[in-house]
Amino acid sequence: YWSGSQSSMAKLLLGVFVVYMLHTAWLLYGFLNTKPCDGSTGEYCITSYLTARPRLQLSVFTCLMPDNSQLHLAVKIDPFDPHSTFERQVNISLPEQTRANGTLYAVVYVHKAGVSPLDDGREVHYAAQLTTYITPTHTHTEGQRDMQKRPSPRSENPVSHWRPHLSITMMSEDFTFNKAGLPSDVRRYMRVSQDGRQMIYLPLLLVNELSFRVRDLLEISSSTVQLPLTVSYEGISLRGFRFWVHLQDVVYSLRQFGFTEENIDEIKETLVGSNLYLLVLTALITALQLICEFLALKNDFSSWRKKKSMAGMSRKSVLWRSLSTLLIFLHLLEETSLLVLLPVGLGACVEVFSTIDLNRQKTVEYDTQASRYLSYLVYPLCISGAIFSLAYLRQKSYYSWLVNSLVTGELTSIICLSETSSSV
Asked: Are the beta carbons of 300 and 347 closer than 8 angstroms?
């Protein structure tokens, strides 16, 4: 009964996971293929403000609070072409409040050329922080070691740092939306205006937070009067706009789950440096990998639970394999993500618990002989590898060196061990 219950539970979990992945695939299909509105069929359409080709201006202001008060012009692009790409480098004067460990914001406006954005009823704007609070670091060099960043001894409290990049994106595609099927991610950024009997939506503006990196931050001190700011712009399609919106939502969720900024930076570089279709393919492959890992663990549990005798299995081979799996898990513990670490950890648990019942053996003689032949090859390789890696001990912790050395030895011998144990 217990075995049948476990099998039913495993099938149920597998079914739920498959349904979830099919639902995700359907959402991805809808994300990649947004259907435009067809007014001839009676659909209620919302057209783009950019269709009329208005003369626009892009203005970037700085302010202490993003409330349209005390704005200081930093960048002005007139005329502004939504389909263009540009980059400007300017120096921003810091207010006294910002230099006193305060904040500073950038407000990006897209509005009619020659008209103040505050007087334009069809302007769109987006506010983003130019400063962020982190614990200060300083760089020092010890001997021939590489430069390392460590917390500054003068303060452990977060202080204001400058973000030297402001990346602006806007949907430049003249896409016509169906009001009834408006995507929720687009609706958050959309402002609709009435033009007679026709509904138009104003430009979809976004500041790309994924371009921000912790390593690029500059500490703001009381003596800092000006700091450089690189303002860049790129016009993107609807698909690209939705892609950036979802990625920024992912980064926000990671922060809520307690990920550090350094870990988030690594994820940003992976996401930003990859093609959209490549990311979708990676997600599908990852889903298939998770299914395969789940089925493999399920089979391992079932195999060891149903095994009544260990006769015919090499005791030393099982112990060696358990040790190898455990060492690989310790090696991955400090260098990889939970997506890889969790299956390896569960596999290590299965291997370790499988060594409990190893008393009933009928192959001790062959096991001993095979292990002796294997040691002639493995031991010299392990010792030479440990001596070779000892040269790098000064550049890493003793624990990391020990684990890496053991893993190297285990990986060297695992192929020979598998061949020997199969012959036993």
From this structure: yes
